[in-house]
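Why does residue order matter? Because the sequence determines the fold. Keep that principle in mind as you read this record.
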Amino acid sequence: MRKKIVVIVGLIIGLSIIVLSTIQPTSDINEDTIIVNNRNLEVFYFNNLDSENPYNQDFNTLTDKQINQLKKEFIKREVLAREAKRLGLDKIDSIISARLAQLGQQALVGEIIEFEDIELSEINVFFEKNKSQYIESETISFSHIFFDTEERAKSYLLKLQKESDVEKLKKLINIGGIVFPYQKNYSKKPYSFVVGHFGEIGATNLFSLQKDIKNWQGPIRSSLGYHLVNVFNRTPMKQMALENILSEVKRDYYDQLRKKDTKNIISNKILEYEIIDETKVN
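Structure:
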């Protein structure tokens, strides 16, 4: 009997909630109005956190500057999502508003500038302003023998320097040192690559060496140990010529134009909406 009473009371409460929700007055806020409040921002913030980042901030600790930036992103997402819905794109993809916003941006922006229509004179101006982006990195080519201590490296260097027989010297080079976790020979590698194998200290020390095919140099220290090094080539940093990278530069210029026009179109579309800011500053 008691269970029946509980069930009946539950049904009455449920029905009451449904009835109350249906008789609430309809909001007079139209589709061109975006309400920005702390609750909306908090939900938006947590829905867009990087799940792989263990250092995500709590919403309540965000600075005023971060909150303002979050508002801009929220408003932009809402505008683009609504524009996508107006175009009926929600019928294509109704899973998440982020996807709607992406579809809305594609629909609003479209192909503003045709890639083929870009003039060579425009590319030349862009290239001259951005030459520093098109630099061929300095590279180094070398072989090395790896040791766990500086003393052993120094001792082995003396053996190499004393050996005059070519075949015996080759054998010493091949069997010398201990196993290095990466390569023994490196050809035309830039600083960024060398850092990955030798660490900042090792890369800096390696690039301080001059080309010397006949002699082994060192020991030099890396993040893993000590190395005897034979540098057989160095290529200096070089400015790339436009004619050799024309397609790449043209693509970069096109992307810059697209980003600029996209930003302007979205900014103008946002101005068509009424923004009601109900957020409270901490």
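The CA atoms of residues 166 and 172 lie 10 Å apart.
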